[in-house]
Amino acid sequence: MTITLSRTEWPDSGFATQVRILAWRGMRAELTDWKLVFFGLLQPVVLLVLFSQVFRVVGGLPGLAGYAGYVNFLVPATLITIALTSAMGSGAALLAELYGGFTSRLRCMPVSLVGALVARTIADVFRLAAQMIVVVVASFVLLGFRPAGGVAGAGAAVLLAVFFGWCMDWVFVALTTMVRKVQALQAVAFIVTFPLMFASSAYMPIAAMPWWMRVLSTVNPVTYAVDATRGLSAGVASVSAVLAAAGTAVAVALVGGLAAARAIRR
User: Fold this and answer.
1) Inside any domain, residue 3
2) Is residue 1 domain-resident?
């Protein structure tokens, strides 16, 4: 005997439902792996401590006296650095799903592949937010981080950094869908990440850089994000700086999202 279900008895799931279910799947997979949770939270703290010691001498450069210590200059930049490294992790997680056959199984179902990409980035945003909260608390306890903007300024800086990280996720998601090989992804991620990190205002004032790096920093979205988070943390951020950071991040996300949506269907 054959049983036939009408659409009202077995309705198709919408895009939002698919994203919600797949995002929860991604978050649950990360939360149930204690090693991933532990080392994921430890990594940004290690980066913060290392950078605070390696670049400590930079605190004596002109233009940093107003931050009352290099750590107050560094922590907002470290939030953006963590966003970049987390975005690399999003690409690696997506690559594991491609190799593990999960994406292939989705192709056989009435599931939006673009929705799967959106879910991947949303799941990683929650991990990124947890990392940043741990970093802010650790920098306050261990390094004497005292933002002039107070708790509200630090919270706003974290929110902006999380949004920036979500936008940068789309760059590495796009790279993953286009390259689809571990070695190639590692090489491309290195080429993309380190120039973005160091050809910016993250670790030293732009005025102290060589002229060609100053030129690169003016078109680097990381510079806009770092300046805005630093301003929010110090309580002196302008609306134009925040909008510039958000606008450049959205532009990057749009380009990456369109490229990923096209490549995932191949």
Assistant:
1) no
2) no
From the number of C-beta atoms within 10 Å of its C-beta (0-12, 13-18, 19+), residue 67 rates as buried
How far is residue 77's CA from residue 48's CA, in Å, rounded to a whole number? 10
Q: What is the pLDDT of residues 12-28, one digit of tens each?
A: 578 888 889 888 988 88
pLDDT for 3: 43
Selection from 190, 210, 189 nearest residue 199 by Cα:
210
Question: Three-state SS for 10?
Answer: coil
- Residue pair 172/87 in contact by the 8 Å Cβ criterion: yes
Residue-level pLDDT at 6: 45
**158 close to 88: Cβ distance less than 8 angstroms:** no
Per-residue tokens: 196: 């973005």
Give the whole-angstrom CA distance, residue 186 versus residue 183.
Answer: 5
For the whole model, what pTM was predicted?
0.86
Q: How far apart are CA 188 and CA 111, in angstroms?
A: 29
Cα 92 to Cα 87, 97, 132, 183, distances in angstroms: 9, 9, 20, 11
What pLDDT score does 15 carry? 85
The answer as to whether 10 is a domain residue is no
Q: State residue 65's pLDDT score.
A: 59
Provide the domain count of the chain.
1
pLDDT at residue 12 in the model: 59
- Dmax (CA) of the chain: 83
Pick out the chain residues at pLDDT < 70.
1-12, 56-68
Q: What is the pLDDT of residue 171?
A: 93
Domain residue limits at 158:
15-264
Is residue 38 in some structural domain? Answer: yes
| 7: three-class secondary structure by DSSP | coil
